[in-house]
Amino acid sequence: MTAPFPVRFTLEHVCRQSGARAGRMETPHGTILTPAFMPVGTQATVKAMSPDELKQLGAGIILANTYHLWMRPGSDLVREAGGLHRFMSWDRAILTDSGGFQVFSLSDPKRITEEGVGFTSHIDGSRHILTPEKSIQVQNDLGADIIMAFDECTPWPAEKDYAQRSLERTTRWLERCLEAHQRPGDQALFGIVQGSTYADLRRQSARAVTAFDLPGYAIGGLSVGEPGPEMQAMLEETVPLLPDNRPRYLMGVGSPDYLVDGALRGIDLFDCVLPTRMGRNGTVLTSEGRLIVRDARYARDFAPLDKACSCPVCQTFSRAYIRHLIKAREILGLRLTSWHNLHFLVHLMEQVRAAILADRLADFRAEFFDAYGYTRGKS
Fold it and tell me: What are the tens digits of pLDDT across the range 88-115?
């Protein structure tokens, strides 16, 4: 008898109005109610945030990066420390990505072969090769609850013949990842669907990847520069081919409109560096749209960042004060904007889940887009 997956998904409700779904994902380090947004802790820390602060804003799972932790401090050191949970003092769930996106985006020159990807470290210029086996070994060392198969993140735009060769290589690499995986009892390996913006290739990839019967599936190679309608079209081609009883993860997506529209199309998990990156640049997400709090117009604005927000930042500090901190280059200013942005997205997904359970996600989308100032047409 096959042992149960270490990560299990239960479908709780399908919205009668939109077809979106609410679920429950159980991991070795806690249960996540979906749809959910995962803050990104690239180097074993979510920038400017402590683990306790992340818990306070409601994060149940965070993402860490295989490439960066392999390069520094090294996965052997993290393993010696007792794994990533102990190393970073985070007792909730962790997902590690495979490192594939980073070797394609950070390294130049790079060499892609059937074996893997040869690249130059962005830290010291040393040469390395990341193979499916190495990616899994590093992720086994790190000990995350969910680990990702090593894939080729096809750039956009891409010629169709290249996109097909790329997705087929990704499928072969998935088989090698499964063979290399040493901890199937406590680490769930997710496969990744590729295929660029070609509908038939997305369907081909989805069928090939789901044939492996994995504990979860991700959709990669989107939100890499393609127009929004193309991304939505690829989700509509791909999601119906993914099993209802497995979690679905849309990689690298974090803008509020894409979160709502992704959930509407059946996505369960999202991640993105957007909230902390925007926060470090003095921009915040609010219920009425983006606000660049470092602008001079807020120098004497003593209102909170967002009157509708319940986060400690909005309950305590004014726009004028936060602007002052940012202009004075005080670290607290960037911490406060990051905290608020993370709270905004985590709470947004809680609102989306509540709307699904109430069978009114389409109505919620219309209300949210109207308040936020989006002008895109109905989904």
Answer: 999 999 999 999 888 777 766 578 999 9
pTM: 0.96
Q: Which residues have a Cβ under 8 Å from the Cβ of 24 and sit 6 or more positions away?
A: 9, 10, 12, 31, 32, 33, 34
CB atoms within 10 A of CB 366: 13
The Cα-based distances of 10 to 86, 92, 245 in angstroms read 28, 19, 6
**Distance between CA 109 and CA 107 in Å, rounded?**
6
Secondary structure class of 236 (helix, strand, coil): helix
Backbone angles phi, psi at 93, to 5 degrees: -70, 150
Distance of CA 257 to the CA centre of its chain: 15
Question: What is the biggest distance separating any 2 CA atoms in the chain, rounded to whole angstroms?
Answer: 67
Beta bridge partners of 148: 190
Structural tokens at position 177: 């990842």
User: Could you give the CA distance from residue 248 to residue 190 in angstroms, rounded to a whole number?
Assistant: 9
Residue in 282, 222, 233 with CA at minimum distance from that of residue 255: 222
179 CB-near residues (< 8 Å, 6+ apart): none
Q: Are 223 and 231 in contact (CB under 8 A)?
A: yes
Low-confidence residues of the chain: pLDDT under 70: 1-3, 107-109, 375-379
Q: How many helices (H) and strands (E) does the chain have?
A: 15, 16
CB atoms inside a 10 Å sphere around CB 308: 11
pLDDT at 379: 42
Position 164, amino acid: Q
- What tokens does 98 get? 């495979």
Catalytic residues, by residue number, are 97, 271
Q: How far from the centroid of its chain's Cα atoms is residue 86's Cα?
A: 22
CA 318 distance to own-chain centroid: 30
* C-alpha pair distances (Å), 96 with each of 17, 44, 49, 74, 232: 34, 10, 18, 14, 25
Identify any residues that bridge with 33 across adjacent strands, giving them in sequence order. Answer: 24
What is the Cα–Cα distance from 50 to 54, expressed in whole angstroms?
6
- Phi then psi dihedrals of residue 88, to 5 deg: -105, 5
